[in-house]
Prior knowledge:
2 helices
Amino acid sequence: MNKMIQVIQVLLAIIIVGCLAGCPPPEDLGPCQCHDDPDGAPALQCRGVTGWEEVATIFTDLGLDYISSVDIIYSPDLTDLPPSAFADVLIDAIRFYNTG
């Protein structure tokens, strides 16, 4: 019985670490920068975005399941987002500052 509990604990730890995966490599982030929030989850700040296609792959191709926050700042040319802009990524807060 104790062995089974240990196995379950290890599996849960692996799942939690996978969900709290850190930031992708900077070269994959286009005009965005990523940092880990206080809980270790990735948080994005994107600056000077001229069109959603510049950042779309962050949400569709990098395998992130969760991002604590996305801040889009100083992006006056960004005036609209496609319906599935953030794909299936769970995001706690999305903020726009000085954006079209």
